[in-house]
TrEMBL record:
Transmembrane segments: 87-108
Any one of the GO BP annotations: phospholipid biosynthetic process
This protein's GO CC annotations: plasma membrane
Biological classification of the source: Bacteria, Thermotogati, Deinococcota, Deinococci, Deinococcales
Protein name: Diacylglycerol kinase
Length: 118
């Protein structure tokens, strides 16, 4: 149990670093919170919303980690460093697009109904 708690502490330090250093992470946490609260308010299924949010936030932290490693290994500009960073950012962008589609599908109809627009 002690080893797990130590590992969890390292993981939480990574999340804290992401929050403190990455503007996009803070934006994504905020939007994810809005999505989860909206799902609760309109009584929509939470699982797809939570999974989409978790995917986006996880990929954002992986992107942050990859950028740190690339900067450590290749402090000067290098074409392959750019490829690594761009591909990781692209993964986050794709996850965000998928999360928006999940949100529209899961939250859209009950939200429109709740607002009296259907």
């Amino acid at each position: 149990m002690r080893r797990w708690l130590v590992s969890a502490g390292f993981a939480l330090a990574g999340i804290r670093y992401g929050w403190a250093s990455q503007r996009n992470f803070r934006i994504e946490v905020t939007l994810g919170t809005v999505a989860v609260l909206t799902a609760v308010w309109v009584r929509a299924p939470l699982a797809p919303v939570l999974l989409a949010c978790g995917l986006v936030l996880s990929l954002e932290l992986l992107n942050t980690a990859l950028e740190a490693v690339v900067d450590l290994v290749s402090p000067d500009r290098h074409p392959l460093a750019k490829v690594a960073k761009d591909a990781a950012a692209g993964a986050v962008l794709l996850a965000c697009a998928a999360a928006v589609l999940v949100g529209a599908d899961v939250l859209g109809p009950p939200l429109l109904h709740r607002l009296g627009l259907t």
